[in-house]
């Protein structure tokens, strides 16, 4: 299969989506994505999380281990289940970046678990 650069442009998002296809993911099926915003304080994170909950977003958060400089980071994940499409990911990144700025956070990217299943065919198993 050759890459369609209109569907999967040559940038970070397009490259990750194309890699998901090469790894055997079915991008016509919904996947759960995690978009991440980091904050310096728990208070900033909580205000942003409440805002996102009012926007009907599913969120989770945790405090990252203390850094060598003594600072902590608070990590907010927004969980979005969707069919992976480049334009939708771009739009969500822009939206979450604006929200991060509004609440003094920093948008930190997205991730997606790969769902790969291997089926054993009993006819091809040797006894």
From TrEMBL:
Q: Where is the Regulator of ribonuclease activity B domain?
A: 11-112
Provide an example Pfam family for this protein: RraB
Q: Which InterPro entries match?
A: RraB-like_sf, RraB_dom
Q: Which Gene3D superfamilies does the entry link to?
A: RraB-like (3.30.70.970)
Database matches in SUPFAM superfamilies: Hypothetical protein VC0424
**Stated name of the protein:** Regulator of ribonuclease activity B domain-containing protein
* Origin species: Acinetobacter ursingii ANC 3649
Taxonomic path: Bacteria, Pseudomonadati, Pseudomonadota, Gammaproteobacteria, Moraxellales
């Amino acid at each position: 299969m050759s890459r369609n650069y209109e569907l999967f442009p040559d940038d970070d998002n397009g490259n990750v989506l194309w890699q998901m296809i090469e790894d055997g993911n079915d991008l016509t099926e919904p996947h759960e994505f995690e978009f991440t915003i980091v904050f310096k304080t728990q208070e900033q994170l909580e205000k942003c999380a409440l805002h996102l909950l009012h926007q009907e977003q599913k969120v989770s958060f945790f405090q990252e281990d203390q850094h060598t400089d003594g600072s902590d980071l608070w990590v907010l994940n927004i969980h979005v289940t969707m069919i992976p499409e480049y334009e939708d990911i771009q739009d969500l990144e822009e939206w979450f970046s604006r929200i991060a700025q509004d609440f003094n956070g920093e948008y930190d990217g997205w991730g997606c678990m790969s769902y790969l299943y291997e089926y054993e065919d009993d006819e091809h198993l040797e006894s």
